[in-house]
Amino acid sequence: MAETSPKRTVPQQAVLVDCHELACTFGAGPSAVVAVHGVSVQIRPRDQIAVTGPSGSGKSTLLHLLGGLVPPTAGTISWPGLGGHPLGSPGRVGTIFQAPSLIPSLDVVENVMLPLLLANTDPAKATRRAHAALRAVDIGFLAARVPDELSGGQAQRVAVARALACRPRLILADEPTGHLDHATATALLTALLAACEQTGAALLISTHDRAIAGRLSRQWVMRDGGLVTASAAADPAGQVTR
After folding, report:
1. In order of start, what are the domains of the chain with their CATH numbers?
2. Considering the chain, what percentage of its residues have pLDDT values greater than 70?
3. How far is CA 33 from CA 41, 58, 67, 219, 224, in A?
4. Closest listed residue to residue 99, CA positions, set 45, 147, 62, 51
5. Which residues of 33-53 are buried (b: 16+ CB within 10 A; e: fewer)?
6. For 64-103, what is each residue's pLDDT tens digit?
7. Are 235 and 80 in contact (CB under 8 A)?
């Protein structure tokens, strides 16, 4: 029997990520680069946030900090709604990069299964989840193909399916549509938003594309490593403190 992703009921006020005066500096001395500084944010279930700003403004580093991929050099960050640091809680955070980074020797479904298998998921269950994730982004028919047989848009959908297969509570997407044409980018975002709506996952996307950013309910604007503006909202979700 095919496995589907049941709509998840989540407490609306649960805080997934909570950080205060977060900063990240690379290097030391005169050559040190302050990539992020003074960022205080909360992320909650079902948040849809676009992180915008010019190249070098700190968007990617901020996403890496929020996902626990790099440590902060100042400030505090915690993941109360994720059960602890993401690296110690496999599958709680799904990460999508600008390049799909698929393994050429594996077929599509094997690429999607891989994070599940690394998290010691039963292989049969991992297979069902991988196929369900591929169907969720409308590429179930590509399951047996290898990456070299995919278009750029199809490969990026596989990367999205790989992130969704673990049923994360938070998805961090770093310029996921940067190399795609407008129609393909729009279709990819539609599939990603629908999947997040189904599961209740929060979604953060860094992007230069105003059309993509405009489809998310909130926008954070970064400049020179700092969060300079955040769109208003009727509820406290995605609260920014400055």
Report:
1. 46-71+83-225 (3.40.50.300)
2. 89
3. 22, 11, 20, 25, 11
4. 147
5. ebbbbebbbbbbbbbbbbbbb
6. 999 999 999 999 999 998 888 888 777 789 999 888 999 9
7. no
